[in-house]
Amino acid sequence: MATNPPKLKTAITANERLHNLKKTFEAKYGESPLFYACAPGRVNLIGEHIDYCGYSVLPMAIEQNIIAAVSVNNSGTIQLANTNPQYKDFTVSCFEDIVVDRDNPKWYYYFLCGVKGIQEKFGIAHLSGMLCVVNGTIPPSSGLSSSSALVCCAGLVTMEANQKSLSKVALAEICAKCERYIGTEGGGMDQSISFLAERGTAKLIEFQPLRATDVTLPDGALFVISNCCVEMNKAASSHFNIRVVECRIATKVLHPEPYGREEICKVLDITSEQFSTELLSANTQHVTQFKLHQRAKHVYSEAARVLQFKKVCDSKPTGSIQLLGDLMNQSHASCRDLYECSCPELDQLVDICRKSGAVGSRLTGAGWGGCAVSMVPSETVESFLQAVREAYYLPDAHRAAMEKQSLFVSKPGGGAAVFLEE
């Protein structure tokens, strides 16, 4: 595996998406892009809500990604635009401190997280001016890491525009840290797989130190992603960070019943002020009850399932597809019952996927909406897709309108890269 993100020369006119992005850029700014950068989304096959506890996870990059077309100048500003008209343009000065408004998580603030992360890493007083147009094919708020892919793409763009160089591992660590400017207390899985992914293989991502190990998925099965069409924005709600906080506290104190603030302070011998500043995040200050035991029980059991999943993939025992499916089913039950990060629509979708022929199906991503991932025997994937389409999407007008971008087979995609026109 190469140390740094690759720089690839490509015929832009031969790639319809890049060609259209180039034309959009030229129409908007009156000049051609200097380079392009992309960062993929991901699907987490198993290992939900455990990366921020330091445990290994097992994701793969997907072919859907974020691409940015960029030119560099001395204007003293960074101008951002998006091919999706619902995302408004934004301009920021290169000579003022970059401010990320975590109370108003607009798309461009995720981009600015990546810019700010690179600026601080290298101590760049005045960033290069940039013109930038962003195009994304990852469904937003779907649990497929569209926001982290945007942060990673922005970090890569900013590094390239300012003629700096970093390894994939360093970029992943910087982007995981700087995404917290938007208020999400994530653990680094999304950014790590976005940079460290390699086409054709899933990865076991380990932390402290960060490293990625190939995991060869079994022959005879495919992974299908299905979006329940309920959107959840991690930065705009406290669901995600509450779980982070509960796990943080659970490392210090644990019994089966929920804990109140006063009890935790008494057990840990800390003041209420220390509890708020040292253990809580900005958007969890209102929480009064903490389910520490069941959150920890999920984390420990899920961490064990990740290692068992990799072991099955490596050793390929008889019935390995069913064994992996069982682990995925156990993971969903734990996410639903112990971590309480599912939702009725996701549970319904997972149930439909299993009845339609999946050997295993589970929520993927933060939860509370977004996508399920299902392991389906290769020979039955077409009948599976049709059955899910008929049972979940077609009966509902909203879901039916989203079906084409919400139900698809996914193969392991490649990691973040820079493209230069031939």
TrEMBL record:
<dbReference type="Pfam" id="PF08544">
    <property type="entry name" value="GHMP_kinases_C"/>
</dbReference>
<dbReference type="InterPro" id="IPR000705">
    <property type="entry name" value="Galactokinase"/>
</dbReference>
<dbReference type="Pfam" id="PF00288">
    <property type="entry name" value="GHMP_kinases_N"/>
</dbReference>
<dbReference type="InterPro" id="IPR006203">
    <property type="entry name" value="GHMP_knse_ATP-bd_CS"/>
</dbReference>
<feature type="domain" description="GHMP kinase N-terminal">
    <location>
        <begin position="111"/>
        <end position="196"/>
    </location>
</feature>
<dbReference type="GO" id="GO:0004335">
    <property type="term" value="F:galactokinase activity"/>
</dbReference>
<keyword id="KW-0547">Nucleotide-binding</keyword>
<dbReference type="GO" id="GO:0005524">
    <property type="term" value="F:ATP binding"/>
</dbReference>
<dbReference type="InterPro" id="IPR006204">
    <property type="entry name" value="GHMP_kinase_N_dom"/>
</dbReference>
<dbReference type="InterPro" id="IPR019539">
    <property type="entry name" value="GalKase_N"/>
</dbReference>
<dbReference type="InterPro" id="IPR013750">
    <property type="entry name" value="GHMP_kinase_C_dom"/>
</dbReference>
<dbReference type="InterPro" id="IPR036554">
    <property type="entry name" value="GHMP_kinase_C_sf"/>
</dbReference>
<dbReference type="InterPro" id="IPR006206">
    <property type="entry name" value="Mevalonate/galactokinase"/>
</dbReference>
<dbReference type="GO" id="GO:0005829">
    <property type="term" value="C:cytosol"/>
</dbReference>
<dbReference type="Pfam" id="PF10509">
    <property type="entry name" value="GalKase_gal_bdg"/>
</dbReference>
<keyword id="KW-0418">Kinase</keyword>
<dbReference type="InterPro" id="IPR014721">
    <property type="entry name" value="Ribsml_uS5_D2-typ_fold_subgr"/>
</dbReference>
<protein>
    <submittedName>
        <fullName>Galactokinase 2</fullName>
    </submittedName>
</protein>
<dbReference type="GO" id="GO:0006012">
    <property type="term" value="P:galactose metabolic process"/>
</dbReference>
<keyword id="KW-0067">ATP-binding</keyword>
<feature type="domain" description="GHMP kinase C-terminal">
    <location>
        <begin position="319"/>
        <end position="393"/>
    </location>
</feature>
<dbReference type="InterPro" id="IPR020568">
    <property type="entry name" value="Ribosomal_Su5_D2-typ_SF"/>
</dbReference>
<comment type="similarity">
    <text>Belongs to the GHMP kinase family. GalK subfamily.</text>
</comment>
<feature type="domain" description="Galactokinase N-terminal">
    <location>
        <begin position="23"/>
        <end position="71"/>
    </location>
</feature>
<dbReference type="InterPro" id="IPR019741">
    <property type="entry name" value="Galactokinase_CS"/>
</dbReference>
<keyword id="KW-0808">Transferase</keyword>
